[in-house]
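Quarterly update from the structural biology core.
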Amino acid sequence: MKIQFITKNRHKFEEVEKVMKEFDIELVQLSEDKIEPKELNIREIAELNAKHFFEKTGKPVMVDDTGVFFFAYPNFPGNHPKLMFNLLGYKGLLKLIDNEENHAEFRTIAAFYDGKELKVFEGVLEGEIGQKVFGKDRDVMPYERIFLVEGKPLCDYTREEKNRFSHRAKAFREMGEWLRK
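Predicted structure, tokenized:
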């Protein structure tokens, strides 16, 4: 089975591609900008984009939307982590949680649409925000340098290790199991 995965982010593509191989599903990366209205939550954004890109291509699609949620600040950075990182950088993000609860979670919504059925899966990874930036020389997504899982920066895990427990892997593994049925 071959399915289009909508993302410009090669890290996301590589992670999801490895998970989908477990289910003999081949992904084709469609490197396009998603529609991300600020007033929508991650589930609504994933559903909107799954439908949009199916209509655009006429082929089954997978899309994900991921948010980072600091427990000290409800819905922040939320469904726009890239925007918040670009505005505040590490200095601003870490300053916000200084002397605050540092628990956080990644949430991924993975959506599949084939023109007939829209199916959505959720994966959550709980952790905390560290007090400094780790692995500045590593080629990872920005929040992986400050997000700790069991006290270890996410950037210190290999992609293979991360794919055993990550929010994205959980959501797409559920999708893979559903697609296999």
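The mean pLDDT is 95.
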